[in-house]
Design goal:
heterodimer; A: alpha/beta; three-stranded antiparallel β-sheet; B: alpha+beta
Chain lengths: ~230, ~575
């Protein structure tokens, strides 16, 4: 599996003045090198990494942050019928400092963008971003002067959830995809172990994964009956 | 609405002001539209406010860039026009005044002295059109960022984000923007200290759990007491009005859903009704009744969302789980009928997107049977709860006059005891055929605003029940050449119908040049679309008057002397969404 490396203390990060800060490069799975060096420490690190990632992905604390319509569907996912606590992500935090991930649920406005950046900066590592809905993904139907055409113009996004707005189920699927990618991540186990970069796995495209199955559909349900 | 009495008012104005009035413009807005000389506008407005049945409310204030408009026969020469729309609740009538402006002299006197709520509207006109209001205490940008250049609703301002360089955020730009958003008390005429004690300035928002979206309000605090506050909006400005000038009449419908995003098809209603006025379409009884039914269903989901979050803002964690369960049941019905949850965009010019599916009445009846017991439970557990009562009784209370001053409509106006519901006073889409009551409050406090909405949901259920019992048969689309999209069955009959179909679907219908306006009693108050057609496939100007905007402007007037928890209770009780404020 290919990985994207973002170094924590990258000199380039200090010089770059455009968000998202830091330089990203494509690399191989760092664990592979470990295995070649020493089978024992390589395996040990893999086990430790998996255990830490397992803990991280199953207690994701979302930041209570909403912009527009999508936030209503996101809140719907938090409530009883959808029950996000099944995935360990029900501890909503009102402060970015206590949150693990931020869902950009709604339109990213030019006036709001610096505020979003500020809130993102206030979150502590490890942190992730889900972009929820067409507006946050790409501007969606709002190709208009006051809207940033996608929050990834300045934030590093981990998962994109399509829809306008996406159903709560779609958001929950996005959350599970984030969990899957967290399981594959390679982060330093401590500030003295290993190199201090974040390796994010490049997860397979969902569209390609499901294409064969989706293309099989030949008959769509009629809208003429409930 | 008595047209004679309205004509008499216009006649009296003519006698009193003579040549200070230019002319009366014939429109389809259903109200007299008078062009007034700039010097006389304050005087005319003051006069209209003093009538025996006064125009108590400045309902809307906006502007139009007239420079590209080709159909202006008989109207005074103008590069820009400023539009004042007044509402008389006592007389149940409206009047619209317009002032013509030359682009070399874009200035006119402020009318804050007559109508205090002109303050934000004038700021919006300044922001969007660059028209100056002499004597305005704080004429600064309201919707756009303070660092913005240009005035977006001018015809020569670009519309699309993709028309200029892609957005980038630099470290330096971030600091600059953040600095521009810094609150400076002196700019708002505020003191930093009193009697040697410093005030605390608390920045609540733009992201705060009880601010219901991207809304910011800066509080000047002495301990827990709010001395003054300054609401700051514009973090949710999606340029819907500019969007209306580039989408076809038909393809703008999905954008209306996203204005009051909890209101779904309720937003389609004023828009399609206004377009149908321009087109001269009379929809079928079935279409009108289905529209009422779906709009009322969305009123219930919106009020349920309100109830859950309102109680949550007061500290009750559980109700939101219950009300969202109810919303899920409503969405089951909505999805079965329209195919989508929040923004179905299901109404069409001249009818509906499709007919009701088979079996709709069964699931709708299930929902209508489910709700009453739940509403009773909410009332018993929450509204009779002494903690909720203590937090909300006599909190942020205002009277009817105060509501008029600030342009408050809808449930928040009715909570003050004022019986003004458009569904009764000016029935549209067949509301006159339904049997329902208009619930009223008495104290106009945060409690009444909550309680009243529970009662409104009961009335909406009554209306839906009548729709289920008496759904008229017939077509779901009007038989009219401008119905969009045209009925498909006729498309292949001969070449003429095929061409018409093709043009209407690809270019969209061409509506005759005129102006129309339609108000509806939306979930949060009176929502209206004021459309100007220049005889094209697109709107020349789309003005969206939303009910949430005035509510936020009113906040400082209510909160001075209150406490921070009262402000949170009030914010919860207003029932606003930011898309409905900033559009």
């Amino acid at each position: 599996m290919a990985y994207t490396l973002t170094r924590a203390d990258d000199a380039a990060a200090q010089q770059s003045d455009r968000y998202p800060l830091g330089e990203r490069q494509r690399v191989d799975d760092p664990m592979k090198q470990q295995v070649h060096r020493s089978v024992f420490t390589g395996k040990l690190e893999e086990v430790l990494n998996s255990a830490v990632n397992w803990g991280r992905k199953n207690s994701l604390w979302p930041y209570n942050f909403g912009l527009s319509c999508c936030y209503v569907e996101m809140t719907t996912a938090f409530t009883a019928p959808h029950d996000i606590s099944r995935f360990g992500a029900e501890v909503i935090r009102a402060s970015p400092r206590q949150a693990d991930f931020m869902v950009v649920a709604g339109t990213c406005f030019v006036k709001m963008a610096p505020v979003i950046q500020q809130l993102y900066d206030q979150m502590l590592e490890p942190k992730w971003v889900i972009s929820m809905g067409s507006c946050a993904n790409s501007g969606g139907m709002y190709d208009i002067y006051s809207v940033v055409q996608g929050v990834d113009k300045f934030l590093p996004v981990d998962v994109y959830v399509p829809g306008c707005p996406p159903r709560p189920e779609a958001f929950l699927q996005g959350l599970q995809l984030l969990q899957d990618s967290i399981q594959e991540e390679r982060r330093p186990l401590s500030w003295v172990v290993g190199d201090q970069g974040v390796y994010r796995a490049e997860m397979p495209s969902q569209r390609e994964k499901h294409r064969d199955q989706r293309i099989q559909a030949t008959e769509l349900r009629t809208p003429d009956s409930v | 609405m008595s047209t004679d009495a309205t004509a008499a008012i216009v006649h009296t104005l003519r006698e009193r002001f003579g040549d200070k009035l230019y002319c009366e413009q014939p429109t389809l807005t259903g109200m007299p539209v008078l062009w007034v000389r700039r010097e006389a506008i304050v005087e005319v407005l003051a006069d209209l406010r003093r009538l025996s049945e006064p125009f108590e409310m400045l309902y809307d204030l906006t502007a139009v860039d007239e420079r590209m408009r080709s159909h202006r026969d008989g109207l005074p020469a103008a590069d820009f026009s400023v539009v004042y729309q007044l509402l008389s609740v006592s007389g149940n009538r409206d009047i619209m005044l317009k002032v013509a402006l030359d682009e070399r002299d874009l200035s006119l006197p402020t009318v804050i002295s007559v109508y205090p709520n002109a303050n934000w509207y004038e700021r919006e006109v300044w922001d969007m059109f660059g028209i100056d209001f002499a004597g305005h205490p704080n004429l600064r940008r309201i919707l756009m960022p303070p660092t913005w250049n240009g005035h977006p609703l001018r015809k020569d301002h670009h519309a699309r984000a993709t028309e200029f360089d892609p957005y980038t955020l630099t470290v330096e730009g971030q600091d600059k923007e953040q600095d521009a958003l810094r609150f400076v008390p002196e700019d708002w005429g505020m003191q930093r200290e009193r009697d040697g004690a410093e005030f605390m300035f608390l920045n609540l928002g733009p992201n705060h759990p009880s601010a219901h979206g991207a809304f910011r309000v800066v509080l000047q605090l002495d301990g827990e007491e709010v001395i003054d506050c300054v609401p700051d909006i514009g973090y949710h400005h999606r340029g819907a009005e500019k969007m209306g000038e580039r989408q076809s009449w038909h393809s703008f419908i999905p954008y209306t859903d996203r204005i009051d995003y909890t209101g779904g098809v309720m937003n389609n209603l004023p828009y399609v009704l206004a377009v149908e006025k321009l087109a001269g379409i009379q929809v079928t009884d079935r279409a009108a009744t289905v529209r009422v039914m779906m709009a009322e269903l969305f009123r219930i989901t919106s009020h349920l969302l309100f109830l859950g979050t309102y109680l949550q803002d007061l500290g009750a964690m559980s109700p939101v789980f219950f009300t969202f369960t109810d919303r899920q049941k409503a969405y089951h019905v909505i999805e079965a009928i329209t195919g989508f949850r929040m923004h179905p965009a299901w109404f069409r010019i001249g009818g509906l997107m499709q007919d009701l599916p088979q079996g709709w009445d069964r699931i709708m009846q299930e929902f209508v049977n489910w709700m009453p017991a739940r509403l009773k439970e909410y009332e018993r557990t929450m509204m009779e709860n002494s903690l909720v009562r203590d937090r909300t009784r006599h909190i942020a209370a205002f009277d009817t006059q105060n509501a008029f001053d600030w342009g408050i409509t809808g449930p928040n106006l009715r909570a003050t005891g004022c019986d003004f519901d458009l569904r009764k006073k000016r029935p549209y889409s067949g509301y006159e055929n339904f049997d329902f009551e208009v619930p009223l409050g008495s104290n106009g406090d945060a409690f009444d605003r909550g309680q009243l909405r529970i009662e409104e949901m009961r009335q909406s259920l009554r209306i839906i029940q009548q729709c289920i019992d008496h759904m008229p048969a017939g077509d779901f689309k009007a038989d009219h050449p401008l119905t969009t999209p045209p009925p498909r069955e006729r498309m292949l009959e001969h070449i003429e119908t095929l061409i018409t179909h093709f043009l209407q679907v690809s270019w969209g219908p061409v509506l005759p040049a005129n102006e129309s306006l339609q108000m509806v009693e939306a979930t949060k108050g009176i929502n209206s679309y004021y459309l100007t057609s220049d005889g094209s496939t697109m709107s020349y100007r789309t003005r969206i008057r939303t009910p949430s905007f005035p509510n936020l402007q009113q906040i400082p007037a209510l909160m001075r002397g209150g406490f921070v928890p009262d402000l949170v209770a009030h914010l919860g009780s207003i029932d606003f969404v930011m898309a409905d404020v900033d559009r």
